[in-house]
Design brief:
α1 packs across α9, α2 crosses α5 and α6 crosses α7. The strands form two sheets. A five-stranded parallel beta sheet has the order 2-5-1-6-7, with helices on both faces. It has a two-stranded antiparallel sheet with strand order 3-4. It starts with a strand and ends in a 6-residue tail after the last helix. The protein is an alpha/beta fold. The chain has one domain: P-loop containing nucleotide triphosphate hydrolases (Rossmann fold, 3-Layer(aba) Sandwich).
Length: 200
């Protein structure tokens, strides 16, 4: 099974690339989805978060993700504590997804991981693909499409490594700063050039 690590900063175009990989025949696991699974009501991770940050972040038994974001994106120490809690659960879910994919005979597995560089998962992939996009473009997308203020957008961008840092560790860099169609076309070219016919 060919395992691809797909990364990129927030609002860079990872979702578009992931969608296109799935259309081409890959099984895609979004680690943001795994993060949401990890903190479902009644989960050990949610209990750990409440213990560390207080019950104020729990509303009707569910994690208030917006309130948590306000706490951790402006505080590197708090963000590190959150990551230390949640990441082991995410890694376990990702490992289970790989095992299931192998059992199902999946040939190409794509893990979409926003924090691939930050979490030190660089050595575990056959290929690492990063999506790059100018900070201004990403900021505008966060404001227009996700309803963040410019200040909130900047806080989230600052919490991640730069595109240059991701590019240092990537095998392939795709440009997510243009149109959706343009990025899909780049994924198609990657698929043709880097995925052996025998595993498509």
């Amino acid at each position: 099974m060919l395992r691809i690590g797909l990364t990129g900063g927030i609002a860079s175009g990872k979702s578009t690339a992931s969608e296109r990989f799935a259309q081409l025949g890959a099984r895609v696991v979004d680690h943001d989805d795994l993060a949401r699974q990890a903190v479902q009501p009644g989960s050990a991770a949610l209990a750990d978060i409440a213990r560390e940050f207080g019950d104020r972040l729990i509303t009707r038994g569910m994690l208030d993700r917006a309130a948590l974001a306000d706490v951790v994106f402006g505080d590197p120490e708090a963000r590190a504590k959150l990551n230390a809690i949640v990441h082991p659960y995410i890694f376990a879910l990702a490992k289970a997804a790989d095992s299931q994919a192998r059992h199902d005979g999946v040939k190409v597995m794509v893990h979409a991981i926003p924090l691939l560089v930050e979490t030190g998962l660089l050595g575990s992939w056959d290929t690492v693909v990063t999506i790059a996009a100018p900070v201004g473009v990403r900021t505008a997308r966060l404001v227009k499409e996700r309803g963040l203020t410019a200040e909130q957008a900047q806080s989230r961008l600052s919490a991640q490594v730069t595109d240059d840092e991701r590019a240092r560790w990537a095998d392939v860099v795709l440009d997510g700063g243009g149109t959706v169609a343009g990025l899909r076309g780049q994924v198609d070219h990657f698929w043709k050039d880097h995925v052996p016919v025998s595993v498509r």
